[in-house]
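chain below, 199 aa
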Amino acid sequence: MEQNDAQIIEGCLRKDERAYRALYERYAPRLYGLCMRYTRTSAAAEDVLHDGFIKVFENLHRLRDVKLLEPWMRRIMVFTAVNAQRHELPVANSSEANYECVDENVSVDSVVASVDVSLLLDAMRKMPPSFRTVLNLCEVEGYTCEEAAKQMGIKPSSARSALVRARKMLVKMLLDRQQKPETESNNESPTAQPGECET
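prediction:
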């Protein structure tokens, strides 16, 4: 019979390897998705997930309410992900991309809602670490700019500025990606038919 979270945690506190494995297998897939949002590569996400679970196992005795297990684990993974790239987190220079030309009337939410999730994640992974991190913390995890600044080790004013610039950059990247297939299609040369020679 499948164990519930409380039983698995009890096993982990007894240092039962089967309980460790059960907790990992239950939550690793969804937490891996969180780690991928903060990193550029799957290998980096796996490293964060591994290090995060070590912290989870080491601190399970601090968890007071089993119902809060998943949000508690998410906070640990976020902390681990941000800490893993802290040396890359100084706020990016505006020269990173020409995103200031984005129309102020364009809604970030409407652009994000119009694209596929995989396209959104791909765009975020290509952003500078500081922009990607502040977007995740504030737009996904629900942190305030002050809380995000504390996590990132920067000033609140820097976090607010980075969030504004990150949102503009994300919109421009997504709009560019949406327009790219149409441009490529228009520029496509006719394909030679079988038996014909291209000139």
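Residues 156-186 form the longest helix (31 residues). The chain has nine helices and no strands.
thats it, cya
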